[in-house]
Amino acid sequence: MKTLALLVVVITGVMLIYAGQDLPPFGDSNTDMYQHRMTQYFIENSESESGVSNIVTALLANYRGYDTLGETTVIFTAGMAVMLLLRRRET
Amino acid sequence: MTGTLDIVYAEYNYWIYVTLMMIGFYAMIAKKNLIKKVIGANIFQTAIFLFYVSLADITGGTAPILPHGGEHVEHAADVIYTNPVPHVLILTAIVVSVSTTAVALALIIRIYNEYGSLDEDVILAARKSLQPEFSEYARQKGVAEVGDQ
After folding, report:
1. Is the pTM of this model over 0.95?
2. Closest listed residue to residue A40, CA positions, set B60, B14, B58, B70
């Protein structure tokens, strides 16, 4: 069982490393992801549009506000599940 | 050989994340203790966070926080900011990670109260002795039983 688990883990790791060869080198700024106009737009315009100097905060709470609202639903659901599981049952 | 080493060095963040992720994956598969499985899942998730944050990093870049009071207009050309988009994704993922961990730990508390053990084999054996019809059902459906390893 442990041998099988180790085998699965090694195969998955080798596949991930192999797939990672196509990813850009560490710290490279000349990638599609960084040069994409969406990223550049956020860096240039997020302060004038949202009034927040922290770009991550502006993205999270302004551009992706609905996603963050959904995130609170996740937290709420998890909290409800924990409460239901740990509630003392009076029979 | 030096070419291979250069490639490995240029992308060492991927090697680190894959190693971490596989440590967590192995713990999730092979460990019998439920708490250790949850720890493995957390290591796995943290490896993903590391992967995304390392993708966002730019050499010589600073944190994506603009200087105060609109000064960034003059400095925009010469200051490099790291990519803020993966950071935002990971903030969301951290919230999901915390939620799943909370639910998993609550389930483990309930399991421990019910069976008095955190060991997978002990729990399955106790379940089998408590509910004979379950093991009968599992046998009919061909589900692997305790001891079939």
Report:
1. no
2. B58
Q: Chain B residue closest to A11 (CA)?
A: B22
pLDDT in tens, B10-23: 788 889 999 999 99
- Domain holding B11, by residue range, is 2-62+72-118
- What does the pLDDT look like over B80-127, one tens digit per residue? 888 899 999 999 999 999 999 999 999 999 999 888 889 988 888 888
Distance CA B103, CA B24 (A): 18
Domain-embedded: residue B123: no
A-chain CB neighbours of B66 within 8 Å are: 47, 53-55
Size of chain A in residues: 91
Q: Which of A6, A44, A74 sits opposite B76 (nearest CB)?
A: A44
- Residue B28, in any domain of the structure: yes
Name every chain B residue with its beta carbon within 8 A of the beta carbon of A13: 18-19, 21-22
